[in-house]
């Protein structure tokens, strides 16, 4: 680890815990963004606020180098009621840093200070503090606000803590890291009737049941076994009374996959089944399919470069291959626009938790989660090493 960063670990732990105690939801990160901007400015880093509504961009530039790298951290919290009761637990009911974005922000801040005050480099480092990763597509908002036009970079990188991965280790792989996130809503319009007179109805619930069963055959019988796809129905809504067959039924759910081709195939097959099953029973069906974000797909060259930096930092044995997960990440939008890589930093198995933690496991999106502060110097050192190595390439 970098000595200066290790020596300031307590200071950035305090910053992280302050952010944890004051969580803010997507596009409401006013206090967080102000805190980030004020710290950066205090270290002499030029700052642009309000990029993508509440995003913050810091620009570190030295020498005449033309290379530029983007480093991204997310800032938003989740609408979760925290179960922890330690001193830095959320002070706002129904809001919690249950995914470690407070830690991601602290790691990049620690790296930013070292780069500003101590590091040597030739080129430009763009520090991207992004709002609204949790379903708000803040990455897309920053890009729509001209992120890469106003602050050009050759490549962009992001990191996320990962429970279960040992502290002091990293995991990354080229290609898909996380799945695309898509949601669907199906409405079956039948004909309502008295529950005792089903012959006078077009039973929307029974039609919806058949559609739901048929949809499960898409993954098992239509998608290639080598292609990973998840299709889950998560909501069924119909009716208000026990003695009434309702005239409509709604199904909602999610589709996750690692390629755009698989996503498009699944959507087309869903529409075909919904319309044909509805028509077979005399019902009218509507389907809405929304693509929230694409797969998070790492670029091979940038991934290999990052792996080399991480191996130098923690040793080859501590840089693992990441098994792709069906969760989603809106950094995927940035990786569609720019070359880059998304990687994981080990958050441990929960041994860092002391008195005051909830009884649940220390897993992401769990009300008993807490970011492991031991990661701050490790992650910050990784950011510094990556930025300096990337910018030094032109002198090789």
UniProtKB/TrEMBL annotation:
Cofactor notes: The Mn(2+) ion enhances activity.
Cofactor annotation: Mn(2+)
InterPro entries with a match to the protein in the record: Amidohydrolase, Bact_exopeptidase_dim_dom, Peptidase_M20, Peptidase_M20_dimer
Keywords linked to the UniProt accession: Hydrolase, Manganese, Metal-binding
Keyword flag Amino-acid biosynthesis: no
Positions bound to Mn(2+): 99, 101, 134, 160, 365
Pfam families in alphabetical order: M20_dimer, Peptidase_M20
One GO MF term attached to the UniProt entry: N-acetyldiaminopimelate deacetylase activity
Membrane-spanning intervals of the chain: none
Superkingdom of this protein's organism: Bacteria
NCBIfam families assigned to the protein according to its UniProt record, in alphabetical order: amidohydrolases (TIGR01891)
Name used for this protein in its record: Amidohydrolase
Annotated organism of origin: Limnohabitans planktonicus II-D5
């Amino acid at each position: 680890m970098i000595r200066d960063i290790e020596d300031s670990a307590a200071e950035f732990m305090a910053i992280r815990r302050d952010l944890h105690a004051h969580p803010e939801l997507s596009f409401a990160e006013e206090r967080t963004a102000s805190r980030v901007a004020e710290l950066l400015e205090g270290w002499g880093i030029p700052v642009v606020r309000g990029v993508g509504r509440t995003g913050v961009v810091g620009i570190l530039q030295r020498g005449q180098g033309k290379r530029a790298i983007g480093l991204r951290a997310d800032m938003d919290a989740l609408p979760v009621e925290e179960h922890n009761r330690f001193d830095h637990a959320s002070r706002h009911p129904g809001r919690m840093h249950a995914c470690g974005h407070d830690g991601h922000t602290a790691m990049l801040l620690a790296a930013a200070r070292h780069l500003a005050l101590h590091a040597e480099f030739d080129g430009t480092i763009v520090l991207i503090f992004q709002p609204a990763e949790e379903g708000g597509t803040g990455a897309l908002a920053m890009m729509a606000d001209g992120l890469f036009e106003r602050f050009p970079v050759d490549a962009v990188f992001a990191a996320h803590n990962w429970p279960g991965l040992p502290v002091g280790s990293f995991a990354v792989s080229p290609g898909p890291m996380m799945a695309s996130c898509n949601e669907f809503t199906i409405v079956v319009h039948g004909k309502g009737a008295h529950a005792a007179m089903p012959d006078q109805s077009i039973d929307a619930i029974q039609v919806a049941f058949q559609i739901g069963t048929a949809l499960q055959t898409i993954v098992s019988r239509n998608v290639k076994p080598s292609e990973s796809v998840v299709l889950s129905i998560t909501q069924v809504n119909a009716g208000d009374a026990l003695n009434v067959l309702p005239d409509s039924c709604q199904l909602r759910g999610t589709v996750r996959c690692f390629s755009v081709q698989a996503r498009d195939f699944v959507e087309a097959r869903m529409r075909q089944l919904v319309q044909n099953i509805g028509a077979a029973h005399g019902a009218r069906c509507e389907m809405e399919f929304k693509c929230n974000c694409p797969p998070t797909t790492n670029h091979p060259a940038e991934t290999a470069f990052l792996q080399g930096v991480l191996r130098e930092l923690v040793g080859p044995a501590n840089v693992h291959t990441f098994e792709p997960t069906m969760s989603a990440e809106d950094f995927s939008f940035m990786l569609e626009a720019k070359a880059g890589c998304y990687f994981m930093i080990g958050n441990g198995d929960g041994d860092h938790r002391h008195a005051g933690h909830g009884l649940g496991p220390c897993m992401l999106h769990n009300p008993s989660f807490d970011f492991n502060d031991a990661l701050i110097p490790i992650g910050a050192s990784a950011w510094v090493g990556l930025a300096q190595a990337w910018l030094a390439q032109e002198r090789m």
